[in-house]
Amino acid sequence: MQTTREDTSRDAGVHAAATAPSTRLIVVRHGHTAMTDAQMCSGGGVPGPPLNGSGRQDAMRAAAALASSGAVAVVASPLVRTLQTAEVIATELGVEVHEDDDWRECDFGRWEGLTFVQMRERYPEAASRWLRVLSAAPPGGESLAQLAGRVTRARDRVAAGHPGQTVVVVTHSVVIRSLIHLTLEAAPNAIGRVRPAPGSLTEIRTGVDGEWTLHSFGARP
């Protein structure tokens, strides 16, 4: 059987794709805050609370775990808690923090500052629909479909700027849930069943077909 030039070219392309280095995003949820501990809605529409003592410890543990990751950049949501977490990690890695507004937390609208119990008591129908219907939004806030749009932009922007490299992204709970939902192409209600802990690490990578794959979720340093 003869091998044609077309076959050889196609095989070379497949081999190149299979051996191309993956782009890795190591996604870190910010450390604990007072609002995290109180189980309150703390969204992307306001600067938000700073890390508390536990949160600073979370950031230091994450930084130590990432010291040998080979990450070349740290990208963060511009909110206070994410920037504080990112600065500790960036110092460990010897890089600067780059802010990206698309990584900010979901805007909870009128739910901002409510505990999760209060949110469900005061807005039972809206709260139930929000985690089941991607187009549903908190009163005055952001739907999960809108969130997914900017998370996709943010992810693809990092990948385009750092092909074949490792980048740390410091962001928020619902953003990480959305990122996993997009990666796995999961059912809408799966978002409510994923709970990344403060300070935890989640990793996604590009595969040989260019698609994103989930390699680890919620690792606690």
TrEMBL record:
GO cellular component: cytoplasm
Catalytic site positions: H30, E105
Single annotated GO MF: phosphatase activity
Protein name: Broad specificity phosphatase PhoE
Signal peptide: none
SUPFAM superfamilies hit by this protein: Phosphoglycerate mutase-like
SMART domains: PGAM
Chain positions recorded as substrate binding sites: R81
